[in-house]
Amino acid sequence: MSLMIFRRVERGAPKAALGLFAAMSLALALIALPAPEALGRDAPGSFADLAAKLSPAVVNISTKQAVDEPPGAEALPDGPFNDLFRDFFDRNRPRGPVQSLGSGFVISADGFVVTNNHVIKDADEVTVNFPDGASFQADVIGSDDKTDLALLKIDAGKPLPFVPWGDSNESRVGDWVLAIGNPFGLGGSVSAGIISARNRDIRAGPYDDFIQTDAAINRGNSGGPLFNLAGQVIGVNTAIISPSGGSIGIGFAVPSALARNVIAQLREFGETRRGWLGVRIQEVTPDIAETLDLEAASGALVASVTPDGPAEGANIQPGDVILRFDGRDVSEMRDLPRMVAETPVGKTVRVVVWRKGKSVTVKVKLGRLENQDTLAAAAPTGDEGDPGGSSQGAEVPGAGMALAALTAEIRARFSIADDVVGVVVTSVDPRGPAAAKGIAAGDVILEIGQDPVSDPAVIAQRIVEAREQGRNSVLLLVQSGPDLRFVPLPVGG
Questions:
Q1: Each residue's pLDDT tens digit in the chain (493 positions)?
Q2: Which helix (H) or strand (E) holds 483?
Q3: Number of structural domains found in the chain
Q4: Same domain, 226 and 280
């Protein structure tokens, strides 16, 4: 802008005025520019010193897995094509063990090494290779497929270089990061970038909370460290998004805030020991928030409670919205499983729930999540829709479904257990609101507006009342087979 002023004055203005305006323009420009240190406060002139310091503790992981060879032609019966089959099997049978490569990093002088679970999964032999050429056979101390982490142990006979954990919670989008690893088996390779995003959910597991970075991460980088400029590990490089298999600047690392706790459990117990709440949850959508008089669509809606589980013992009920867990806000549904998993087994925590228009605080003593249990599973959303069947029932105006009471005949027709109390959906208009929310013939409506219901007329009446009150939807508790979920059924218009 100041340059444009300078050019306009230059045409026909006296030299004195020209000099005055030039000086003013320069002063304005200097005022407008931020101080040099503000532009790149943490930007290093080079990463060389940091890379030289950290690289000795970053290792390559190689594995071998024996393959059972399929039976060859010698297992075939004699026949005119025996020679042809023998040649085919000989040319296509595996040759030697399957090998794979990955990365890892040493976290203690006595030889504990962190890597990804998928790097060492099903391996019969794991070798840790150091940049100086030293190699050691490794024992797998433990692994966790839910976070894709594994802990190895080597005996080097001497103290090893290692790197410290950092706090990923202190990292911000835009911070510089350094990735060191073994891309494509090339050996120690360094790439730099920034944190592109935090808290990414890439549907890799129940506790997704990835750091996204544009530092180049390729095949073979799996299990390697992501460093901050203090030389601390803030992430374990785990996955990339790429149509070609190579880096396009979208890589993901398990944050140290999650990884450090998992690795500590593997080191102490050889397995993970996660807290267990015993609920099935679903997302709080704006429609659901409106039906529950919640100010914001946040928290985790309890769809069902595991019998005899910790939540049931603390009187957490279906329909409750968990807003806070152990002093932390539950901003999204997917936050809760991670919070519970990170909490020690047996700890008693305060849980704040939203129940029928007000906050209620309960105390829960967490159990231990076993492999066959579900920490806080997402209830089925039912968004796929279902055209339903042709069974007859009373049509609910504006809902696109017909309902009937649970008689013995209806129970037999839809295979509904005798202890289920509610109203059955006998048919669904494929173009109506109910179908759009995944309600199908044979589903049972147990509650409307968090009140138990067994009469189809009551549901029709409550829908009419909600429409007259200007509400956009009513909240139904629906049972589909063994699964429960809350459904905000649109009623407007």
A1: 333 322 332 334 444 444 544 555 544 444 444 444 444 455 678 999 999 999 999 999 999 887 655 554 445 455 555 554 455 555 555 555 656 689 999 999 999 999 999 999 989 999 999 999 999 999 999 999 999 999 999 999 999 999 999 999 999 999 999 999 988 888 789 999 999 999 898 878 788 889 999 999 988 899 999 999 999 999 999 988 877 777 888 999 999 999 999 999 999 999 999 999 999 999 999 989 998 999 999 999 999 898 889 999 999 999 999 999 999 999 999 899 999 998 999 999 999 999 989 999 999 999 998 643 444 545 544 443 333 333 456 787 778 899 999 988 888 889 898 889 999 999 998 888 899 999 999 999 999 988 899 888 888 888 888 888 888 888 999 998 888 899 999 886 5
A2: strand 483-490
A3: 4
A4: no
Mode of pairing for the β-strands spanning 376-378 and 279-283: parallel
Verify that 154 and 289 share a domain, yes or no: no
The one-character DSSP state at 185 is G
- Quick one: 186 and 252 in the same domain? yes
Shared domain for 77 and 184, answered yes or no, is yes
Degrees to nearest 5, angle at CA 230 with 158 and 254: 80
**DSSP of 192-219, one letter per residue?**
EEEEEEEEE--SSSTT--EEEE-S---T
Q: Is residue 411 part of a domain?
A: yes
CA dist., res. 206 & res. 145, Å (int): 10
Active site residues per annotation: 118, 148, 222
Question: Tokens in use for 25?
Answer: 């323009």
477, amino acid identity: L
Residue 35: phi and psi, rounded to 5, are -60, 145
What token pair was written down for 250? 């979208």
CA-closest candidate to residue 427, choices 395, 452, 459, 454: 395
Q: Both 93 and 232 in a single domain?
A: yes
List the domain range (segments joined by +) for residue 18: 2-33
Q: Is 48 exposed, middle or buried (0-12, 13-18, 19+ CB in 10 A)?
A: exposed
- Is 448 a domain residue? yes
